[in-house]
Amino acid sequence: MNLTKHLARLGTASLFLAMAASPALAETKDAPAEARLNPVNAALLYHQVSGEPAPVTSMMAKPLNMRFDNEFERRRFAKEAFPAFQKMAKDVLDQPAYYAKFSVRLGDYDFTNERFPLNGIYSGSMYFHYDAGKAGSEGLDYAVRIVNTDDIKFLDMAPDQAEALLNKVNGKISAEMWMVPTSPVSAGWIKMNNDYFRTVQMKATVLKLFDKNGDLIAEIKSKTPNLKNKAKAVKDNPIREPEFSNPWTAEDAPTAILDHYKWYIQGKYKVPNSDYGADSFQSVMELGGAVAKGCTASFGYSECKRLMTARRNMVNRCAATVAKERKRECYKIEDLPYTTEEADSYSNRTSN
């Protein structure tokens, strides 16, 4: 494969469109592709506002189904594609608002309050889930959690208009929810439906409803005024050019691991500003259980068991070799997410 020629044909704009496209979501005429939430865009937004380390090379290559014959090709691809990827990440972050499309149904009309409840808009909060693998990532899946759904769960309408609408749409309609991150930003690992997700908490600004022909039926606006996207990338933005250094194979691996994974070791996965009823990790045992579940899902039971044994050996090595003031950090290695980078490092070692 001649990667230079391939990337030249692909071009920056095409690279963006290929990674941002999602056939399952219909395009909206007045909405840019980078505003549409899909696995790639959700992951780019999450990593930039949370600061969690991102597997940038994998996030560039996997959504494009790129394959490499050798490490030279992989590194050349990363170097040549990164400027376009970085621009795409910035474009995602800079959107005034984001949107997701889904279906809702009109509930039984409430004659007392003259409104339809919308089935598919949940009380209190709801979330949209995005597969980490489709974003080129590993470990926990991504999500955006809408914390003000009570603002948009009813469609106010006079009885005569309500009956006409029912006859027209037969109950089912298309919804387009526009949203912005909460201010201040609240992003981290949140428990929803018994699973943890890498989550950005958001507030809906408006819910647009369409009939089957794509004609606008109504707009339901949030009761919170002046909602705007004030999210900024963290100071140490993880969307940066890959360094191709694997801390697990470094000469002083324990220190390299503690430095590389400081975001996790310092507990920054705990959600700040979680005043919206979300559950972040409550105990070390719960965190370890979630990480172990992710390991089994990614690598299978037998391989995961081997990885856990190798990791415990690394924890012991760390405690025996690092500076005294960092020894307590070593035991937090047990709860790091499992990655291919770590698995490959064990595969490349001898039994000694």
TrEMBL record:
<keyword id="KW-0732">Signal</keyword>
<dbReference type="Pfam" id="PF16144">
    <property type="entry name" value="DUF4852"/>
</dbReference>
<dbReference type="InterPro" id="IPR032325">
    <property type="entry name" value="DUF4852"/>
</dbReference>
<protein>
    <recommendedName>
        <fullName>DUF4852 domain-containing protein</fullName>
    </recommendedName>
</protein>
<feature type="signal peptide">
    <location>
        <begin position="1"/>
        <end position="26"/>
    </location>
</feature>
